[in-house]
Amino acid sequence: MVAISGLSGNEIFCLRQQGMYPGDLVIGNSVFSLGLIGGISSGLKTIVGGEVSEVTSIIHEGRQKAYARMLAEAQKHGGIGITGVNNDLVQQVGNVEFLSIGSCVHQGDEKSEKLEFSTSADGQELYCQIDAGFVPKKFVFGNVAYSIGVGGGILGSLKSLKRGEIKEFSSIFNQTRHLALERIQSEALNIGANAVLGIQTSIIPFAGMQEMVMIGTASNHPALTVAWCQSPITSDLTNQEMWNLINLGYMPLKLVLGVSVYSLGFVGGITSAFKSFVRGEINELTTLIYEAREQAIANIATDARNSGADLVVGIKTYVYQLGSGIIEFMAIGTAVKKLPGITTHSTTLIPQAIISDRDTFVNTAEGTLITKLNQPS
Length: 377
Known about the structure:
CATH class of the domain at 9-248: Alpha Beta
Number of strands: 14
CATH superfamily of the domain at 9-248: Hypothetical protein apc22750. Chain B
Distance between the termini: 37 Å
Strand content: 25-35%
Largest sheet: 5 strands, mixed
């Protein structure tokens, strides 16, 4: 039989170094009616803002069903693991399809009776992860569906008359962002893992709300003992970045994120509107975005200090327009700590682990309704 794999040549080369061979592409899906998500109970919850737990639960169930069906297909192929697992949303007319796709890998010619792992890492990332001393266990995700809410919107409108941070919005957004992180940690803890690696975060507009979803790989590292690490470490570093840091003796501790929501204010809005007719800097917007950025980064610094980190690396910053002169500023990174005896198996990283594959098919003739996790739209 000819294997139909989603692995690239670089991935196949990297996996061969770890004794693994390409197997078949495996797929699982589940289609839900959007009518379920537009229920009365969910609508009532959106009045106060924050998480819409019924919608979170429905999306979580759909993602899990698709993932379970992909696992079942991999079992039939006799693979030891699945790499490059993703969990996409395909929005159709009146329905939403949850879609899980990955590529089986084998060890030798014999079929395995047991699926040993699944991972969001592709073949190159998986090589880096294993060479850094981690053993992959399971693809995990944490999600939260949320709304600012009618109540939050009214409050925000009142608060927006004054320039500065809208603490009520900051609180709602901070809570929802951290819920996704807590849930991915919980999934890892339930299977006995002490790390969640390669976390990728997506914010997806969905049925008049938004979903924040984090995906990653629950893994184990022998150096992460219970005495030193009370809960699974979390990292949004790429596995290539993580390999380099571990080679230098740094261990990831915690994905840290900070959120601040600011309003330009009624007076500032009028002032900046007039200034927009004149060439030059709009000081109100400059200082507003600067203050929002500083507040978000200050939140990260506090989180990192509380975790005992030496350094926060890979900080990425994002600004979102929420309307009515209100912006959300989010900063995200990974806190790391220098630990004795931490290093990689190899002294250098093979070039095939960092070579970027190039797309050889591009279709710009029509749009698509699929929402790919962690990919720009």
